[in-house]
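Exercise (ungraded).
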Amino acid sequence: MEPFFVYENSGSEPRNGVTDAALQPCVCVADRPCDAGSPALEGYRPPEDAEVVSRLRRAGIPIRGAVGMSEFGFGLRGGSAGRAAAAGAAQAELMLDLTGESRAAAAALGLWGFKAGYGSVSRRGLIGLVPSMEAPGILARNPAVIRKVLQALSGPDGKDYSQPADEEPDFVPRGIVPDTTVIGVVAESLAGLSPDELAAFRSAVEELRRRGFPIRELSLPGYELFPLVHRIAASVEASSSAGRYDSVRYGTRASAGENWNEMFLQTRGEVFGPLIKSLLLQGAYFQFRRFESYRDACRIRSRLLGELRALEDRADFLLLPSPGQAPAAEPDDLDGLYRRFASTLFANVAGLPALYLPGKGGTGGCQLAAPRLQGPRLLELGEYLDNSPKGD
Amino acid sequence: MQHSRRVFCGSLTPEDAGRRVTLAGWVDAFRDHGGVLFVHLRDRSGIVQIVFNPESTPDGVFHRASLLRAEYCIAVQGRVDRRLPGTENPGIETGSIEVFVDELEILSESEALPFTVSEKAMTAFGAGAKTDHVAEDLRLQYRYLDLRRPSMRDNIMARHAIFQRLRRLLDGKGFLEIETPVLTISTPEGARDYLVPSRVHPGNFYALPQSPQLFKQLLMIGGMERYFQFARCFRDEDLRPNRQPEFTQLDIEASFIDEEFIYQLVEELAVEMFALGGITLPRPFPRMSWNEAMEKTGSDRPDLRFGLLFEDVTSIFADTGYSIFRRILQGGGRIKGINIAGQSEKLSKNVLQNEYAKEIAPSFGARGMTWMRMEGGKLESNIVQFMSPREREGLVRQFRAVDGDVLIMVADTSPAVLASALGQLRLHLANRLGLIPADLYRPLWVTDFPLFEPAEGGGVTSSHHPFTAPDRTDFDPADRDELLTLRSRSYDLVMNGEELGGGSIRISDRNLQRRIFTALGLTEEEIQAKFGFFLRAFDFGVPPHGGIALGMDRTVSMILNTPSIREVIAFPKNRSAYCPLTGAPSTVRREQLAELGLLGAGKKEVLPGPADGEDEVERLSWVSRIRVLPGERREIEETLRRAEALARQAEERAGDEEPVFSPAPAANRLRDGGEARTPDPAAAEKLLKLSPSVKGNYYKVPGILD
């Protein structure tokens, strides 16, 4: 079959409307390789399924196999995110969204990409890196598939100790009435867009307006601070999370080392790539040299969450710019990476569900976001936009 | 019940028989003897037995009495009566009487006790409870209960009596009791200061006094002439078993006096204090120069309860053929020994050779130890054959050795090592051979200490403190060798090998004081910075003065013969300088630190950059256990530079919001009774296939980790 599968399953037939799904190998499937794209986990075969895998199985969605992923899913360099879905090898792809990877991968391949709201999907059995920022992402050729997969995955998991105490999500369709569905546009999100990007965004706004949605211009004064918060908080979390990888029970182990400490030092020096290494050492810097900066970042995060909550009364959904076209090469340095994901970070920092809508003819596209627990509603809007005739 | 009519339990005597009394106190112990309730009622004055008899005690009272438990606080009324012959209890002061109770008020109840308070048996031949086995930290945690125990009460009351006696004596001699500040400035004593941050002057600190040294001298300059104080002193020293971070000393200073005044005064005080413990000290106390103490006992606080004084036998071996001695003498060394008279039977050849010579003496720093025994008028040992007849005769003569004596000798080129090693051997032997008589107290004045000690890296440092007067004033402050020969006009009071206190005649001449500072290598700026205010006082007519300080905790402990000084302190710290009762020292709120300016600029403590001489990348690489490989370093340095900019930016942009660490708080899923997850062992086995495997009780470690 297609070369992008790390491993393939065969056999069971779909019972659900969704025929099958591919995974990234950061999702634990019992006894299947699960290295999260890193030599640090080479040879790791989880003893049991992740909660999302159990739920897919229960929903009758066969797991087609796992595709290549970037190191710990941070950025898109070195992975093949979305290609299985784009090539039709699987109807949906499940991946981790740390900085906007699912939406950016979708944008690069003309797919629909969805990042779940923080806490709405169990993360037990997902190998993560930046716990407060990441959430499962789903890619597919149309939002209806995404919605079905999300419905299968959503809901409380008593064994996920990081999950908030949210209500069971509501997937009952309420119908979309354009006249009364206010779409907010964050003025600050347009600063720094290239003329092409700006034009694409404007045409998306016009499209929605033509379909009868009221557009309201809103202000989010702290918008420019999303990257700052993400860069500090995510690196501190990553430095902590990656501390467990010692290559003792699994993983590539360096051949040198006279004692444990030397072995850890050398091994971890070899297994982490340049991008992750920069992230982890930067996290160590914040923790050991400037711990206040982490608290400062979390204070700013608190303010940003407040500003976003205030917008919930003024608009039902937010419309934000597209992650843009894929660059010639995915960045392998932190600065480049944060430039690449500048327009998607808000949803990770704020824990919002966000949906990438592909533009027509492979151009443009935009993101829609909703309050944290409104993922199903956001996908309903996606389906509405996908189905309703587009005015030309 | 009227407390005003209360009489004290311990004050009752057989003469009170028939009297009706009101008593109050705590239930020390109780027993039910054939329906009659006997209770030991304890107050500070002592214990008396009170009796509840169903035939004479009203029903209601008897019922309430049956509910009494240990350490209930109660008040009773009743009639004093002599006990029947044969039922007396000599274990308590009031053992020949008891009180028949007809009224009882339970003032307050007590919970079950963490340890037994009662120490006195209720019957003539019963055994009282022992508290020796109670962990000291538990006693300190419940010190208020511990203080109820008669033995602790006695200690505290004895301490009070000693302090009051001293006050009266000193008052009678014209001494004024004057308090000096506790919040003060660092003084030039040896130990570390406890510091107290000042809120009003951020970044500045008071120091708690290590002693009121400067203030008591200023009181003399202030014309107070005679001063004393029970001063609380604080030293942040390394922990030692019998030391407290704060302690009480009797601080004395007087003007227009000399050493003789201090000797007479302190001897009188000591005799009176020890008399309160039933100990007679003969006056005058002997005196010994520091030199002699070191020569004879190897210690500056000699224990004179036993002999075993050193003899210097260097000259006997001036031309010796015994190679070990010869080499040490050629190196300028000396040979000293002790005659352990009449102990030949207890010190076998095996003990002397295999224990003392091979193990104990080397552990005290000696290079070796030579031993001999007098038998049949001759010296016997494994080395006697190497000594000439003249040397052997010389030893017998100098040690006045007779049959049954054991001689030990140590030779060393360093006088300090020799004194220390032989001095410790002296104490070790005295303890081992039981040569220290119990109940013997041998006070001693040690005088004429060296004024200076050699400082590390050249120069000199004060042995005591820089205000101590030297024995002569015609010295050259630049001549280090001469400075080291100077003696001070100081004196220590030593009792049974323990230093109880010390002091000196102070310098009262400003020029002499300056020359001492010069000798210590202090520049004019340093002198001004450290002692400016003090030296200024010397410009205005200083009387000759001197004084002494006695460590009261140790002195009281010695008088009462308690196993530690904590037994004579109401609320001591434990051996770790921690108070189990209050939990001091404790952390404080961040706000308190901020208010005191201890967090830098209030909200944040930003210490950017690595410490001196530390490489940032190496440091972070190490704490992260991630090696930065060749070729990656520049990229990482660049990342850290950006990170610093980010940190600064975050600091600028952060407000006062409460930080949030994730978009929504995690639910508490640990409480409700979910089942514990037990992974399949077979799966775990697979997971661990690379890990160290178990063989028997050991881990087999992969080669990489060997």
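Further reading is listed at the end of the chapter. For now, observe: Chain B touches chain A through 65 residues (CB under 8 Å). DSSP finds 19 helices and 24 strands in chain B.
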